[in-house]
Amino acid sequence: MADDRANEFLQLIRQSQRGRLKIYLGYSAGVGKTYQMLQEGHRLKSDGIDVVIGLLETHGRTAIAELAKGLEVVPRRRRDYRGIAVEEMDVDAVLARKPQVALIDELAHTNAPGSRNPKRYEDVLDVLAAGIHVITTLNVQHLESLYNIVENAVGVKVRERIPDSVLVEADQIVDVDLATEDLRKRLEDGKIYPQERIATALSNFFIPSNLEKLRELTLRELAAQIDFRRREAKSEAGETEGDQVMVCLSSHGPNSEKLLRYGSRLAGKLNRNWYAVYVQTPSEEATVIDAKVQRMLSDTLTLAKQLGALVFTYKGENIADTILRFAREYRVGHIVVGKSVPKPVWKRIGRNKAVVEDLIAEARGVTVIVVDPCPAVAPALARPRPEDDRREEGFGKADAEGPEAAPSAPIVRDLLSPWLSPRRIVLWGVPVAKEQVLRTLAETVKNEDGVSDPEKLYADILIREEQGSTFFNEGVAFPHVRVEDLAAPVVALGLTRGGVADISTDKPIELVFLILSPAGNPPLQVKLLGAASRAAQSRPLLQALRSAETPDEVLRAIVNWEASIPRSLGA
User: What is the maximum span of the chain, computed from C-alpha positions, in angstroms?
Assistant: First the structure.
């Protein structure tokens, strides 16, 4: 079985021009992820593939150090941080060496301050973007959407986390499994930790109940990923059903992150797009709320995007009405909302005083899921441990019931390129105003069947923008409208080298997707928005677009990226 998986990845290496990602996924330190990664490195080397170790963490394990012999190692980058010598992967050296395959251990690792990227998974994305294939390792508890599950179960905050989209985008995922009894025996024999740490580990994290629950979660995650990709392949040519998932956010929500992680898992279980929506009332205009609330809201929306949501800020005086209007437009079937804090009767009278109750009363054909966002009380024995003890092995015992057992939210694989053309791609080498961007993109589609008046189209776009700006903090914009007489979808794309001058965002707006869809086919708009969102989150594609100099090169980069997304999993 292992040789078959190695041969499958070997075929991907030989057939692909872009970097492929293979993840060895496990439930705990010591199950054998790094060992299998190194074994595959040797197999690939024997097949004539140029393999290097980009980063290896031996943690003092003799067997790992011995197995690494015979494989070229790219020297680490050494620097001083607050008087302490630290070593990290030298990404520039790996890129300069340009092997066919790089073995990079511990995907969720946080880099030392001053490194090229804050997280190792971002280093890996840079390596992949350069056309280098990567084999890496990961424990399931480091997935962002599982954070609350793990914290509630064991009382430990997993600090090192990666977006679920990294796992979703992997070309191969291989489960590295080991019976819990065998794992404990390996620990007792000194094959995982030094002698002085064994007794503590056996009586804390490595108790059978912790290991069994985390092992179960890993197996469920892999099974759900396989099922999602199977159903995704079957439904690619089908119509998007009206059961997308929507998470409602509040500027004063007690735990919006928990709602987002729940929505991510639910959308994965249903194999649907999902949206994170913040309704901005007149009392919450940017000029009214204080800087602290604005920053908290910005951080929440950024997390939503990292989890794979398409993020919208809608304007409206009546929150419940605005949410339901959004749900109808975007074919939402499941609304996730946080449980309201109990209030006296007199405080529940009037507009926006009882949003949850109003949603439940007014919703038609939509399931409203009310989640208690308040943190659960941790079990007495599951107390947080000192900072120095929060290592990889210390995170576990996750609840795998309900939506939490599903994979992270899928990203629709429908294509953008069939609806694009070079004449509808515009590049600006200097900062440009929002009005100019929208007018120019509207002008590029004026000869399309059903688009006769670019000025009317521009006016329709502005009406949609007044409801809520589609220019987001993550450097991308998705202006979109439904057109009555449009025969087929139309996509125009603007690339700004200097950003949109009159839009204040932390990251300059680099990509502006103008999406027009037939008014009589709402599901198509949903699919195209999902496809554009996925494109905007692809680091390799973004790097290719940044280096493109002509519309033809831009379209070619998109076509090549879309053609390079096969899926395969290993058990």
Answer: 77
Number of residues that make up the chain: 571
* Cα–Cα distances in angstroms (integers) from residue 233 to residues 11, 222, 568, in the given order: 21, 17, 12
Neighbouring residues of 308: CB distance < 8 A, sequence distance ≥ 6: 163, 164, 165, 168, 264, 267, 274, 408, 409, 410, 411, 537
Q: Shortest CA distance to 55 belongs to which of 16, 11, 103, 13? A: 103
324-349: pLDDT as tens digits: 988 988 889 999 998 876 554 444 45
> How many helices (H) and strands (E) in the chain?
19, 18
The span from the CA of 194 to the CA of 179, in Å, is 21
Alpha helices in 496-538 (DSSP H): 522-536
Q: 520 is written with which tokens?
A: 């009589």
Q: State both tokens at 126.
A: 């840079």
Does residue 414 carry a pLDDT above 60?
A: yes
3-class SS shares of the chain: helix, strand, coil, % to 5 = 45, 20, 40
How do residues 215-254 score in pLDDT, each as one tens digit?
Answer: 888 888 887 777 766 666 555 544 445 578 999 988 776 6
> Which residue from 59, 7, 68 is spatially nearest to 37, judged by alpha carbons?
68
Distance CA 170, CA 133 (A): 11
What are the phi and psi torsion angles at 103 (to 5°)? Answer: -95, 120
The answer for residues whose C-beta is within 8 angstroms of residue 373's C-beta and 6 or more apart is 253, 254, 255, 256, 258, 259, 338, 339
- Spatial CA neighbour of 412 closest among 222, 271, 227: 271
Distance CA 484, CA 340 (A): 40
Ordered by where they begin, the domains of the chain are 2-231 (3.40.50.300), 240-386+401-405 (3.40.50.620), 417-562 (3.40.930.10)
Q: Give the integer Cα–Cα distance in Å for 176 and 33.
A: 6
Contact between 246 and 334 (Cβ < 8 Å): yes
DSSP 320-388: HHHHHHHHHHTTEEEEEEEPPPP--GGGGSSTTSSHHHHHHHH-SS-EEEEE--SPPPPPTT-PPPPGG
Hey, what are 428's tokens? Answer: 């600006």
